[in-house]
Amino acid sequence: MTRAGDRPTDITAPSPVTKDDKMNADRPIPFRRLLAVESRKLVDTRSGMIIALVMVGLVAASVVARGAVAGPKLQTLVGTAGIALGTLLPVLGILTVTGEWAHRTALTTFVLEPRRHRVVAAKCLPPLLAAVALSLFAMLVAVPATAVVSGVQNVPAVWEVQPLALLGWTGGNVLVAAAGLALGALLLNAPAAIVINFSTPVLWAVVGRLDSAGATLAEWLDLGTTAAPLTSGDMTWSEGARLATSVAFWIAIPMAAGLVRVLRKEVT
Amino acid sequence: MGIARGRKAGPGVETRRTPVRCGGVRIRGGLGGVIEFNHVSKIYGKAKALDDVTFTVAAGSVTGFLGPNGAGKSTALRILVGLSRPSSGSATVLGLPYAGMACPGLRVGTLLDAGARHPGRTGREVLTLGAITLGLPRTRVGEVLDLVGLTERESRRTVGGYSLGMRQRLGIAHALLGTPAVLILDEPANGLDPQGIHWMRRLLRDLADSGCAVLLSSHLLHEVEQVADHIVMIGRGRVLAQGTTGELGRGRGLEETFLELTAHADRGPGSTASPGSTASQEIGASPETGTGRGGA
């Protein structure tokens, strides 16, 4: 067996270290590098790759299936992808921010970049960008799906879309991804965060039917309810206020608390 | 001379004498303390994990950080690299708090736990992520793989299927990515076969001889004894003894010294250990002679 021990270890000769590298040691790691690394971590394991493929596959499948059933209506087909995205994007967010703690790779990551807030920022961006990219992908798939369904079923296609509604819909997808990130950052435990993520809609359904106070609570805090007007393309001020309240409750506050937790946590 | 001169040199004070070349990086403060623990204590609730730990590691030397399980070795190393905060005192690397360095990975190579890897990532991918983070060319990945003796095929397997020995080699490869001037290794010999241990001894010796400061923790006395110039013994969070390997082992062998000093830590209060053994002892000469073979 030939291991390195069989020959003299030459540490300095093959080293690519140059004056540049020496200077680089005195320069902070550029954020784009952290972003590149954290994006790469999303797909460089088999499980990460499977999640990515499942998301792409589900978006495409849901758009096509809806087309076959509901007929060639572009905006309806796009909106259908929201079911897949609303389910999977929070999970992606949760897994992204909790991953380092599950496998204790934080030990390596935070040793290379001790400014932990930069790592957290670099971790949060890829799922948010994925939400935008997958929303665009859904629109892209919906166009040929609408055309094909129209041709096959011999029904005139409905191409009308409200740009604002699609924008709002995309924004809604970004929000659910952000909610997953925030919940994950707060708990730093994927199973707990996923269970809470999937049980809250049930909880709101119950709370909303309790009494008038419960209904009001759900109207203001259930992100699923408050984000719904986004997809209509015209949002009233009071709807905006409700959305802002629920965003603060589910995204801003847990994210801030989670960030403080990550910054202070003893990494073991 | 490490301790005394290291203190005076202190953070920020650069004694620009002949710079030591190691990994292409100038070491601040010449041969003074590259790693310095200054009265570091760590308290968890009522338990004192570390109690007034003070020692230095000089450039060009291998320092063995010895202690029984639970003595506080890992806690001290985590504090050193900024993963944990000391309750009091401070630890510096190259004259700076670790987290205060702009890009510490290019100066300091760290292996804290070879097992802390995503099992689904390949060894090569682990190193690639590190290389991207540090802004190194991808060719560096192949170089460090060669250096630690992981084959091309092994590097393309996922870490979940690695033996502990292979994980240690991967961890050391990762630590060497940035051609560091300082190496901090927690229990790197765990899980290595005799061949691997021999290899690691040579690697650490070569690195130290080229000017690196190496701090490695272990409970494997004989392994440390054969490679370290300087030993810091710790038990129950306190430095029990420090000095050159020769001084600590003089006359009775390192193991004897170790067992005597750490007896109370293993058996707990009320044991037969002599009362004096809890006090911090300086074996042999004064700590000023502590750099051992440094600069040899």
Automatic annotation (TrEMBL), chain A:
According to the UniProt record, where is the region Disordered?
Answer: 1-25
User: Which terms are listed as keywords in the entry?
Assistant: Membrane, Transmembrane, Transmembrane helix
Q: Which domain of life is it from?
A: Bacteria
Q: Does the keyword Protein biosynthesis apply?
A: no
- Write the signal peptide boundaries: none
> Which sequence ranges are marked TM in the entry?
49-69, 81-103, 124-146, 166-190, 241-263
Recorded protein name is: ABC transporter permease
Give the organism, scientific name: Microbispora bryophytorum
Lineage, highest ranks first: Bacteria, Bacillati, Actinomycetota, Actinomycetes, Streptosporangiales
From TrEMBL, chain B:
In alphabetical order, the GO MF annotations are: ATP binding; ATP hydrolysis activity
For bias type Polar residues, the affected ranges are 271-283
What are the entry keywords?
ATP-binding, Nucleotide-binding, Transport
Where in this chain does the record put each ABC transporter domain? 35-261
Keyword ATP-binding assigned: yes
**Looking at the record's lineage, which domain of life comes first?**
Bacteria
Record keyword Magnesium present: no
Q: Which PROSITE patterns match?
A: ABC_TRANSPORTER_2
Please give the residue ranges the record annotates as the region Disordered. 265-296
Belongs to which family?
Belongs to the ABC transporter superfamily.
Protein name per UniProt: ABC transporter domain-containing protein
